[in-house]
Specification:
By secondary structure, this protein is of the alpha/beta class. Helix content is 24%, strand content 18%. The strands form 5 sheets. The protein has a 9-stranded mixed β-sheet, with helices on both faces. Strands 15-14-18 form a 3-stranded mixed β-sheet, with no helix packed on it. A 3-stranded antiparallel β-sheet has the order 17-16-19, covered by helices on one side. α2 packs across α3. The protein is elongated and about 85 Å long.
Length: 506
C-alpha cells in the first residue's frame, strides 16, 4: 500500500459534524472537485504556493498536499524531502478559531502540534504554516469597521471566540503586518470555504453576510487564482451584497462557476438558503464564464456566457432561462416591480398588533400575519388613496428560498372591501374594477409568472424587485400559460423547462 493510500484512511473528515450552518466543513469529494477547476500543472511545480485563509478542518491543504506529493515525484524523488519541501514551502493556512487550528494541523501534519513527535514534517514551532492568532474587532461606535459585526454580540471575554477572522481584519492600515506578509508571499492560489455570516443579534435572516469579504480580501493579495465555495445569494445582491454582486458580475476574470441551487447536494444535512456555488477567478485570463448547474450529483447544464446579460443587473442562474428572458424583454413592456408597492405599504411593520378582532365605528380591515383585524382608519397615514380600492395582496415572504424550483407558489389574495395591511403583504395591484383584480390574480398563478419571479428570488423575502422580470399584461383579459407562451414565441423546449422548474398547483 502506497503512502497516499495509507494516509488518513478511513477519512474521518467525511463524517465530521459541522460547527454551524455558517461555518460548514467541506467534504473531501467536494474539495477535489474544486481542485479540479485549477490548472493541474500547478501541482507539478515546486514553486506553487497555496493559501487557505479560512481553515476549519484542513481538508483543502490536505488534498492539495496529496496532489503535490504525487505531482512532484519526478522533481523531488525522495519522499521525505518531497514532504518536507511541500509542507514548509508550498502550503499555508489561517485557522478561523483555535480549535480549527488544532484540527487542521491534525489533518495536514498528522499532529495537532507541528513540532510534535508524530508530525510528518518537523517545524520550529507548534503551529507550523497553519496559524491561529487571536484577533480583535475594530469597533467604531457599535459596529466593527472591518466586518460590520455587532459590538453587543462579539465584544467578548478572553475565554470566548471573537470570530474576528484574521484574514479580513487586516489591511494596509490595520493589522498591516499580517497583510504585508501575506501580500509579499505572492501566493499562486487562494482557496477555501469561508464563514458565511455573523449574527447581528436578531433572527437568522438578519445576520450579516461575511463570505464576500474573504473574496474581496483575496483579490487584494493579487494571486494568480482564487477559488472558493460560497453561498449563491450574491447573484441577486441584497443585504450588504449589492456592490459585491456588481463587482463579481462585471469581473471577466471569473472563468468558471459551478452552481448548486440545492445546497444539500454539496453539504448533506445543511440548509443554506439560495444554494451555494464555487468559482475560479483567473488573474491573467479574461473571457466568458463556463457556468454549470448541478442537480443531485449531476451537471444538468454547462454554457460559456457572460455573467451579466444585457438589460439585467443580476445573474440569470439557469442557462436555459436566458433565451426565455430575452424573448420576454424584446417587447420592452413595463414590469410588475413598477406596480407592486414597497414594503410596509401602509406603514405597519410585520409585528404590528395594535388592532381589534371585531369591527367598530370608523374601523377598517387590516390584513396581518395569519389573521384579519380592524384598525381605526384615522391611524393610516400612507397610501390612504388605496384604502377603498379592490386590492390584490401578495405575501412579502414565501417559500424557503433553498431549492432550484420556485420554493412555493405565490398565493395572491383579492380583497374587495376597504382594507389595509401590515408589512406581511405587498399590494400587487389596486383597481376599481373587480375583473382587473381577478385577471391579475390569475396571471400571478401561471407557471410563466412564477418562473420569471424565480429568476430574481433566491431567498424567502419577495420584495418588489423580484418582480422586475415580469411584464405587466392587459388585465382587461384573462391570461393563461398557453396564451403567454404564444405571445412571447416560446419553443416547446422552453415551455418544458418552465414546467420543470415550477411546482404544480396543489
Amino acid at each position: 500500500m502506497s503512502f497516499l493510500e495509507e494516509l488518513h484512511k478511513p477519512d474521518i473528515l467525511d463524517c465530521i459534524s459541522h460547527l454551524s450552518s455558517d461555518e460548514v466543513f467541506t467534504p473531501p469529494k467536494l474539495v477535489n472537485e474544486i481542485l479540479d477547476t485549477l490548472p493541474q500543472e500547478l501541482f507539478n511545480n515546486p514553486e506553487t504556493k497555496f493559501l487557505d485563509p479560512c481553515c476549519k478542518s484542513g481538508i483543502f491543504l490536505r488534498e492539495i498536499a496529496k496532489r503535490l506529493i504525487e505531482g512532484l515525484e519526478k522533481v523531488i524523488p525522495d519522499l521525505d524531502k518531497r514532504i518536507e519541501h511541500i509542507f514548509k514551502n508550498q502550503l499555508f493556512g489561517l485557522a478561523i478559531t483555535e480549535l480549527t487550528g488544532l484540527l487542521s494541523r491534525r489533518s495536514v501534519y498528522c499532529s495537532k502540534n507541528a513540532n510534535g513527535e508524530y508530525s510528518i514534517c518537523q517545524f520550529a514551532n507548534n503551529q507550523g504554516n497553519i496559524e491561529y492568532k487571536r484577533t480583535y474587532h475594530i469597533w467604531f461606535k457599535d459596529k466593527c469597521m472591518m466586518c460590520n459585526a455587532s459590538k453587543s454580540e462579539y465584544d467578548r471575554d478572553e475565554e470566548l471566540e471573537t470570530h474576528a477572522y484574521s484574514f479580513i481584519h487586516s489591511d494596509e492600515q490595520r493589522n498591516s503586518e499580517l497583510f504585508k506578509r501575506l501580500k509579499d508571499m505572492k501566493f499562486d492560489v487562494i482557496i477555501g470555504n469561508p464563514p458565511y455570516q455573523l449574527s447581528d443579534g436578531g433572527n437568522a435572516a438578519s445576520a450579516k453576510p461575511l463570505y464576500h469579504l474573504f473574496v474581496q480580501q483575496a483579490k487584494k493579495l493579487n494571486p494568480r487564482y482564487i477559488t472558493m465555495i460560497i453561498p449563491a445569494r450574491w447573484y441577486a445582491g441584497g443585504k450588504g451584497l449589492d456592490s459585491f454582486r456588481d463587482e463579481m458580475l462585471n469581473d471577466d476574470r471569473i472563468r468558471v462557476i459551478h452552481d448548486f441551487p440545492d445546497a444539500s447536494d454539496c453539504f448533506p444535512g445543511v440548509e443554506i438558503k439560495g444554494g451555494v456555488c464555487y468559482f475560479l477567478w483567473n488573474r491573467d485570463d479574461k473571457g466568458l464564464c463556463s457556468f454549470s448547474t448541478h442537480k443531485k450529483n449531476t451537471v444538468i447544464s454547462t454554457t460559456e456566457r457572460p455573467l451579466l446579460e444585457d438589460g439585467c443587473e443580476t445573474l440569470i442562474r439557469y442557462n436555459e432561462a436566458i433565451s426565455i428572458l430575452k424573448k420576454v424583454q424584446a417587447l420592452n413592456e413595463t414590469t410588475m416591480d413598477t406596480q407592486i408597492t414597497s414594503r410596509k405599504p401602509f406603514g405597519f411593520a410585520t409585528d404590528f398588533k395594535d388592532y381589534e378582532k371585531n369591527a367598530f365605528e370608523n374601523s377598517i380591515k387590516i390584513y396581518a400575519r395569519g389573521e384579519i383585524g380592524y384598525i381605526d382608519k384615522r391611524k393610516i397615514t400612507q397610501n390612504k388613496n388605496l384604502l377603498d380600492k379592490i386590492k390584490v395582496y401578495v405575501p412579502a415572504v414565501f417559500g424557503n428560498g433553498s431549492s432550484g424550483n420556485t420554493p412555493d407558489r405565490i398565493k395572491p389574495i383579492i380583497v374587495k372591501d376597504p382594507s389595509c395591511c401590515t408589512e406581511t403583504y405587498l399590494i400587487a395591484g389596486s383597481y376599481d374594477d373587480e375583473t382587473l383584480a381577478e385577471n391579475l390574480a390569475s396571471y400571478m398563478q401561471t407557471d410563466f409568472f412564477h418562473f420569471l419571479v424565480a429568476l430574481r428570488k433566491n431567498t424567502q423575502h419577495a420584495t418588489k424587485i423580484v418582480y422586475s422580470f415580469v411584464p405587466i399584461q392587459d388585465f382587461n383579459e384573462e391570461w393563461t400559460d398557453e396564451k403567454l407562451y404564444k405571445k412571447y414565441g416560446l419553443t416547446q423546449d422552453e415551455t418544458d423547462f418552465i414546467k420543470s422548474m415550477i411546482k404544480p398547483m396543489g
